[in-house]
Specification:
CATH class of the largest domain: Alpha Beta
CATH architecture of the largest domain: 3-Layer(aba) Sandwich
Distance between the termini: 32 Å
Largest sheet: 8 strands, mixed
Number of helices: 12
Helix content: 40-55%
Strand content: 5-15%
Number of strands: 8
Shape: elongated
Amino acid sequence: MASPLIGDRRRYEPGTLGAATLRRRPSQSLVVGRLRRAIQRQWLAVVLITLILAAVGIAYDLAGGVRPAATAVYWAPLGLAVGLGFGLLRELSRNRVTSISSFGKHRGYTILGASPELTPGALRQLPPDKRTPVGCLAFQPSSAFATAFRDLQGAIGETRVLSFIGAIPNEGATTAALCTAISATQQGRRVIVLDCDLRRRSLTRALGYDVDEGVLEAAQAPESWRDYLAEEEETGLHFIPAGRLLSPWRTLTGAPGFSVLIEELSRAYDLIVLDCPPALGNAEGTVIASMAERTIVVTAWDRTPVSAVRNTMRALQRRPQLATGVYVNRVPAAYRFGRLRPD
């Protein structure tokens, strides 16, 4: 007799093809997924153009004495055709990062990996105060999100100084830097992360800190860097936050001791992670990123313009010995590539 908990449903051993088929829905078509997202972006513009053009045409014909039914039959399809054409042209001109394989192949960039989008459903099993990327790595180590950053460890290898930079703001470079550092810490490496974005201080705020002194003061006195050291409670990650910036003219690139600070930290840690300002905001971001052995350009799926990535790479590759790569985040869970799979 079958168990009342499972009924007559067939059971599979973990790790078999049957188990994967039972637990996961098939991956959706890339074309269908892109079409659905395009409709979500452009439907409002299509509707507005259709209504405006049809309303203007109908009003013009009514003023000339044409019957409403006859003019509507003509102007409504015409307005819809114009609206669809405008939406199609607008969508084709976006030129965003939406295909990992073609992006790396045709642009010649090294794709180091990708991480899935953290949806509310993916974080539902965490406590309300832990529903963050850090909480996902700390309390859901078997999730696809945590697995993606463990896979990234193999791509960075024995790199000692690693920098993360986004082409434009809000691409997820801070999250990628923080999660990479935490993942390396979980694997036994001695890691420290520096918040080098003095104006936005995204990493400092993400960890719940707001200090008066931080990485800039540490760069001015490299031998006293331990005075500015902080530790993340859940994972034990060491980091140096960014303090409140009193003067907009103070920069890390203008601090002569910043390179000395990195040398001091390299004696105490296996991996130093630099969270840099956006590359296209000012020149400081690419200068700081170029001080690392390897730089990872972080892009957001279906958001980052390819032209922005190209300009960032062009600025970074002025230093020939700098190794560069691209990491894509916020990938919808229904898409499959590499070792990323939907939940």
